[in-house]
Amino acid sequence: MLNALSKAQLPRHVAIIMDGNGRWARKRHLPREAGHVAGVAAVREVVRAAVDLGLENLTLFAFSSENWKRPKTEIGALMALFRAFFRSDMDELVAKGARVRIIGHRGRVAGDIQAMIEDAETRTAGNKGLNLTFAFDYGGQEEITNAARELARAAAEGRLDPETITTELFAARLFTSALPEPDLVIRTSGEHRLSNFLLWQSAYAELLFVETLWPDFGREALTQALHSFAARERRFGALNSDAVA
Ligand code: FPP
What we know:
Layout: E1 13-17, H1 21-27, H2 32-53, E2 57-64, H3 72-95, E3 99-103, H4 111-124, E4 131-138, H5 140-156, H6 167-171, E5 184-187, E6 206-209, H7 219-230, H8 241-244
Parallel strand pairs: 1-2, 1-5, 2-4, 3-4, 5-6
Helix pairs in contact: 1-2, 2-3, 3-4
The structure holds farnesyl diphosphate.
């Protein structure tokens, strides 16, 4: 049993690359889709735990812009799960005061999902609890490229002096402009990659790679991850206090 963490020890923003659904299913001789179904149950448990722990921001990588390369049947299953999740869980999220956002391309997903996303964001826009963000059809390089293109266009049209471009101005053009940068990025399933997730935003994030496959990641695993974070020393490029003294 782990001790409760104080608010000051908690990361303000936890972002998770939910990996390993396919391997979880294969180990059980089940189709990959069954792994994604179990993955949704893990999403539900982790979101509930985040609310109970008082986390401010949780961002989950639900579908990457590269995931379109998967077989049509698997993409269809993931889209169906996304629809089902929003239908079944929105009332609970509203009741818990969560503010839901979706970051990603949007234009490429089916019209009914786009409408669902807009509805979820509108319904929860005034909520002050957990900021729950799903990265959906999201790619970090594409996000950065889009921001650069927007700034370049503004400069070309004479609306922006290139000399005034700062990191803050750039960050304001990203999907995550309303959120603090992640303090902790977790990837499950033993892979040590960022896979195009929050590339700009993770500049100073603590990275935590755990062996657990996503469907087995729950309340306890999240709590353990938060304890690992609390034990780390963050320097943001500076020296630690011992070295300065
Ligand atoms: C990676 O596992 C996971 C994904 C590509 C999608 C994540 C989706 C979910 C957890 C379910 C849907 C989410 C919501 C919010 C409804 P993988 O298939 O790459 O696993 P593998 O590497 O073992 O094959």
